[in-house]
Amino acid sequence: QVQLVESGGGSVPPGGSLKLSCATSDRLLDTQVVGWFRPAPGKEREAVACISWHGTTTFYHRGLKDRVTISRDTAKNTIDLQLKNVKPEDTAVYHCAADIEPSVYSLCTQKYKSIEQWGQGTLVTVSS
Hints:
Elements: E1 4-7, E2 10-12, E3 18-24, E4 33-40, E5 43-52, E6 58-60, E7 68-73, E8 78-83, E9 92-99, H1 104-109, E10 122-126
Parallel strand pairs: 2-10
Antiparallel strand pairs: 1-3, 3-8, 4-5, 4-9, 5-6, 7-8, 9-10
């Protein structure tokens, strides 16, 4: 039922910026929260940021709050993740996921750990 497509990845030098987009489907009419996730050292995955569907609340990885911004583009029907001042450790395949529970905290701290299907994702490579 979930229909999400990630895009916007690419190669970027350290200190640069880029924007990732998560395109949503009309099938997700009940979606309340969307999040961005990536692999993490010592873990299978970590939550980068989550946002309520209408952008009223957000949740950020505590170590990335100053370098990432999650937002909704209503016109394009996407959930965007802006990365700035990127570092080599930001290199990863980024995935997005949606949840019908209206809690950014729930998705970004607990529920993402149980997601079985992550889709293709979009690759971000930070290097000189």
